[in-house]
Amino acid sequence: CAFPEFLFFPRSKSLSRSSVRSRMSLKPPKAYNSLQKGALIWDPKPLQVKKIFEALKKGLNEYLEAHQAELDYLSGRHKDTKRNSRLAFYYDLDKQIRSVERYIRKLEFHISKVEELYEAYCIQCRLRDGATNMKQAFALSPATKASRESLLELYRNVQECTEDMCFIEGALEVHLGEFHLKMKGLVGFARLCPGDQYEVFVRLGRQKWRLKGKIETDDSQTWDEEEKIFIPNLHEKFEIKVTELRGLATILVGVVTCDSVNFFTTKPQAILVDITELGTIKLRLEVLW
């Protein structure tokens, strides 16, 4: 069976800071320049992280259930083959079983790592909320030397929790895997005519995919690219822009956004996106996680 490669990301070294970051495995610092100490920190999005975490955990459990069922099936055949003494087939099955067992162990570790990261994230989120509430309370009290010192300490606590949450978000993104997008063509009925040329531009954060296609005389479509791999992002949605090419001129057909939260599943997802407001032109994609 084919195993998803996202379960085999290398584990990078932890940072040495004596906080939550010293216990989290992150990508190399070079890949997270914006997360390094002293750099500008963006605002964490706990609700979005929760939504992605729940979808990710559900998808990983689907993989676990599917391969556990495969292991049960192979184990049953293994016992029957042993009784029938077909040694060559028996050893081949034994290799398959060991391979699936190794994969299941990796998958179980992957799930536990994701849960650990999210639990640490929730703790930092609660600490930040508590420090923020206390900071607001002290700000309303009479200004004294003690209150100013307390405010300064609470400000540092809020900043530290925010920084830790951003680091954990970066660590969680390492475990999101890959989205394989396949171009399936435009659907437009009377809007698509032979000879028409279109450009499709797909963006996910800094990742981009630009491809051009043409409507042939037999109504088939040819595209210069058919597949692209995107790395999921906690905060960004897919942005899709379709443009019609007419000589040197370009006519914007439509721009839409698409949330990726439903893509964390074992089965390929057939996506039909309305490019125009009335749905007269649609884009067909297939997404495999």
Automatic annotation (TrEMBL):
Transmembrane segments: none
Any Pfam family the entry gives: PL48
InterPro entries (UniProt xref): FAM65_N, RIPOR3
Domain (FAM65 N-terminal): residue spans on this chain: 12-289
Membership in a protein family: Belongs to the RIPOR family.
Protein name per Swiss-Prot or TrEMBL: RIPR3 protein
Biological source species: Regulus satrapa
